Amino acid sequence: MKVDLVVGGCLIHDNKVLLIHHKKSDKWLPPGGHIERGETPDEAVEREFMEELNLQVKILNRNDIPNEGNITEQLAVPFYVNVHNVGDHEHACFFYLCRPKNPGALKLNKEELNDFKWFSLEELKQNHIQPDVRNIAKKAFEAYNRLKK
């Protein structure tokens, strides 16, 4: 089965996580999408947030090893990775923790998305949030709280 590489970004702000309601899948999901040829996962996360929500984000959980020798760039470490079925193929998805750089600029891309909403941990328990998305968002809160310490 074909496997595409994709990214998802869990944006945490004011103790809430941002989810989008995607038109094509008709589901609440973290923002994200396919990694394009020649693009790093970090660049894909940043591009997807701009395309879907007009948001600049800071990706968290970066390493701080000096760029010496052959190292030209350090990428963020995903807080979670999975492979999931999307019908006729699968997605290998790398999920990253993010913080908004410009939260006031949030603007919905109406071609791809129906809506967006900030969810607290309690609101994630609502029935219209898929169990896998709920669990990923909970994991994002846990990872975010560990980073804050």
Describe this structure in words.
By secondary structure, the protein is α+β, with helices and mostly antiparallel strands. It has a single domain, classed as Alpha-Beta Complex (Nucleoside Triphosphate Pyrophosphohydrolase). Helices cover 21% and strands 34% of the residues. The chain has 2 helices and 8 strands. Strands 1, 2, 3, 4, 5, 6, 7 and 8 form an 8-stranded mixed β-sheet that branches. A hairpin with a 4-residue loop joins strand 2 and strand 3. The protein is globular.
Kindly list the characteristics that best describe this protein.
alpha+beta; Nucleoside Triphosphate Pyrophosphohydrolase; 2 helices; 8 strands; globular
Short précis:
This protein is an alpha+beta fold. 21% of the residues lie in helices and 34% in strands. Strands 1, 2, 3, 4, 5, 6, 7 and 8 form an 8-stranded mixed beta sheet that branches.
Task: Please name the fourth-level CATH homologous superfamily.
Answer: Nucleoside Triphosphate Pyrophosphohydrolase
Q: Which structural class do you get from the secondary structure elements?
A: alpha+beta
- Outline, from the CA principal axes? globular
**Percent in helix:** 10-25%
In whole angstroms, how far apart are the ends? 41 Å
CATH-defined topology: Nucleoside Triphosphate Pyrophosphohydrolase
What's the total helix number?
2
CATH architecture: Alpha-Beta Complex
Name of the CATH class: Alpha Beta
Name the helix and strand elements from N-terminus to C-terminus, one letter apiece: EEEEHEEEEH
